[in-house]
Amino acid sequence: MIVESFFGSFGGRYVPEVLRTPLDELETAFREAMEDETFKNEFARLCKNYIGRPTPLLFAENATEKLGGSRIYIKLEGLANTGAHKINNAIGQALLAKRLGKKRIIAETGAGQHGIATAAVCAKLGLECRVYMGEVDIKRQHPNVFWMELYGAEVVPVGSGSRTLKDAVNEALRDWAGSFPDTHYLLGSALGPSPYPDMVREFQSVIGKETEKQIAGMEVEALVACVGGGSNAIGFFYPFIDKPFPRLIGVEAGGRGSLIGDNACRMDGTGKIGIVQGYKSLFLMDDDGQLQATHSISAGLDYPGIGPQLAGLGKKGRIEFKKASDTEALDALRFFARNEGIIFALESAHAGAEAIKMAHNGDPEKALIVNMSGRGDKDIFISAMALAPRDWILFLKEEMKIYEG
Ligand SMILES: *Cc1c(COP(=O)(O)O)cnc(C)c1O
Predict the structure, then answer these.
(1) CA of 378 to the centre of ligand 1 (A)
(2) Whole-model pTM?
(3) Which of 94, 123, 277, 341 has the fewest Cβ atoms within 10 Å of its own Cβ atom?
(4) CA 394 – ligand 1 centroid, Å
(5) Does the annotation count 154 as an active-site position?
């Protein structure tokens, strides 16, 4: 198998000299593993028994009837162990690390979901795990820190820069430059220097391969996925990117408005070509090349960069990019909870929101397939505050009383 490094003009490997050796080693190991039946069987076995794959494809018949247009189907990645798609990639890379004889895993995390998936697979595969996390994120995401530590991971606060995700990535890269003989850097989305985008895409394409089988014989109008860094979307879309149909629709975070800093839309013309954290892609940045602040109600969609393969396919026109606002995502969360008994993660609810818009005017003979990248239990602090604030605040106050005595 050939590892793809460039996607159109995006991608590549722009790293300091010290990182060339570990990236070369990783690329070779990945290429060999993909041709090794033993490795592939082990990945498939863990996907089945540990992650709980294949995840179902649900016909959302009540939602379809309510909207009166295209048939809506939901790929339930939220039923995967740890509650989201991120574990597909974490398992794949952790198995590669073992194959390379590494004893230790490091990872970055923003909201904490990638940290949780990584910590869980390290527990399962007997690997030491350290997760770098910005101090600001640690404060905001305490429950996720708790879970990571319960899985046995060490969570290391990063106090440099804006003390968020991009600083955690820098810290992980710094660690790796000095530790790669026994350490693997388990990166969380389909971005970063080659071979990460292609490797993460490969492990996540288990979503698309299952979907392809599940939709056999159906007339499909479009596949719809939310796009943060882009790993669930590229994994879901991958088997279809070289075909003219169905339409592939990526949904970015429209946030609270169109001003800079109020959203995380890179593909609406706002993203600028840049080279950041080892790869060339489109980024939200100012004229000095500094990454800009972003906003989204969902913590997983607020990264200022986008995976290079998605950027390339967007530029080519194969993938269409849309946006859903914070409010539209919350409406979609409520709609699918009420009508289907399913709680979308706020990230995935952006894809759900676009499917609702499309289904309204859609062809009743055709299907829209939505990837529910994760389930929404993790979002209760945000969702309850947004949808039922009075009761939620009352609950938090009562809880505090118990501890304050
Ligand atoms: C992290 C996350 C995302 C965004 O990441 P991608 O790499 O764009 O997939 C989307 N949905 C959920 C549930 C997540 O946890």
Answers:
(1) 13
(2) 0.97
(3) 341
(4) 31
(5) no
